[in-house]
Amino acid sequence: MNHLRFLHYLDEVARVGSIRQAAERLHVAPSAVNRRIQDLEDELGTPLFERLPRGMRLTAAGELFVHYIRSRAAHLEQVRSEIEDLQGLRRGRVRIVVSQAAAGSYLPERIAGFRQQHPLVEFQVQVGDHHRALDALRTFESDLAFIFHLTPEADIERLYDVAQPLCVVMHRSHPLAAEPGRVSLRQCLDYPVVLPGRDTAGRQLLDTYLARRSIKLRALIESNSFEFLLGYLRYEQALSFQIQIGVPSVGGELVSREIADRGFPSANMVLACLQNRQLPVVAYAFAEYLRNSAV
């Protein structure tokens, strides 16, 4: 299928915006990449790229053609999966974008469980927010997205939603860890707070609620890394906020408490795919496995 490889050359240039960088990633000569692009442009009778001093940019025709390439590649992957399924195999690759919160322990555990049943299946996992997830689904870079607080979109199919409350997280030695039930935000005012960045869904839920209240939480540390924030709780009696499945249960160093404040908003973890796209068999099987796995 050499023609598919040549189409991949064009797709890679579109992604990185440079023939030289694309050639390095593809392990071929830049001249070979440039020649295949010129051949395609000659065949189609129109430029697919603008040649700029600092790289390559898709033309309108190029945008259309790249979308065709990516949709064709996705369809081929689905056909390959069906053929392998007919042969009684469970080979193939599942490509998924996941929120940071589920990337630490929840998704690795589910992938390991699925691979015990289907050891020939490979996974490609990207960590990203809902913007990255939507882009990956629409460009056929990913089959599935498992994202916290994914906003409704007309071209995105929500396969299932799981309610996930935002919780206060602390070390097990923290004074609030002795509280038997929920913790109010006013109780948090007496302790230092470390928060995820303002572009994260959990932080946005917290900020939206606090904007309508007299409670003001001042973060001594902000970070885009959940791993860093949870790690910091081991060294100071600070508090952070995370959804339930984002709190590691192994070892028991950290504990979480649901927020007691009335009217505090909740959100869902959402498993989603591109609307009207027939998923590869193995990706569909993993989606069903996630659906049937209790959170």
UniProtKB/TrEMBL annotation:
One of its GO terms (cellular component) is cytosol. SUPFAM superfamilies: Periplasmic binding protein-like II, Winged helix' DNA-binding domain. GO terms for molecular function: DNA binding; DNA-binding transcription factor activity. It comes from the Bacteria. Residues 1-59 form the HTH lysR-type domain. Keywords: DNA-binding, Transcription, Transcription regulation. Pfam families: HTH_1, LysR_substrate. Belongs to the LysR transcriptional regulatory family. This is LysR family transcriptional regulator. The lineage of its organism: Bacteria, Pseudomonadati, Pseudomonadota, Gammaproteobacteria, Pseudomonadales.
